[in-house]
Amino acid sequence: MKSVNTKMFGTGTLVIILTMPLPSFGYEGFLEPIETVDIASSETGILQSVKVKEGDQVAKGDVVAVIDFRLIGASLKVAKAKKDSQASILAAKAEWESAKQKLAEFKRLHAAGNARRDELNKAELEESVASTQVTRAQEQQLVAELEYKRIQAQINQNHIRSPIDGEIVTVNRDSGELVSASQGPFIRVVNIEKLKFVTNIPSAEASNLSEGASVKLVVDEGNQELEAVVEYLSEVIDPTSGTAKVTLVIDQPNDARSGLAGKMVLE
Q1: pLDDT band at 143 (very low <50, low <70, confident <90, very high)
Q2: Burial of 2 from C-beta contacts in 10 A (0-12 / 13-18 / 19+)
Q3: What is the DSSP string of 185-226?
Q4: Close Cβ partners of 165 (under 8 Å, ≥ 6 residues apart)
């Protein structure tokens, strides 16, 4: 709005001065999701199933795809059987118990003069070997448990999960197709509960801003005004453009959508 000032000169002339307010400057950018995650597979294999489609809402930890793990599943059953089996330990303990009883008997006979020293030495050796066999069986049991956990972890890696809450916006693999780490991401999930806006402002303007400050953001579509907060203000000035990078966060995007153009307004 224009403001009117008047000034009377000595000649009796009245001069009307129209004063315009200082202009507001807008710095352009685009609205983006507050989080964007591209999901890839850490394992190489054939997709058994893809659990999501574009537009689906997912929670953090939800399974979005599964790599065929039937062969690994068979290995898991074998590993579980070995882990749960107590036969080797029980047999080794029985042998050890028998060797201990035999050693005790030879000690009694040797003390009474009815057993030779070499017979006692042999019984002591057999008891020691039997004790070692118990330890070995227990160690093998531990190895079986670790192998079972390793295969479980491998199967869990074959269940590909979303690392964030959000909306699926890209799925470019189908069941039966090959995936691998070298092929890169095949699912994209975004969190649009909040939006962010990235732009660059002159160094002179940057000196008047601080992180946490509230600013106005105008979305081009519908000329909608949004309240935003400065989340990040770079301390580095680009020597070519003389600008600093600024990231704004919009806690309440209302009807504003990711991808729309807008302007950060500094008055």
Answers
A1: very high
A2: exposed
A3: --EEEEEEEEEEEEEEEEHHHHTT--TT-EEEEEETGGGEEE
A4: 58, 59, 60, 191, 193
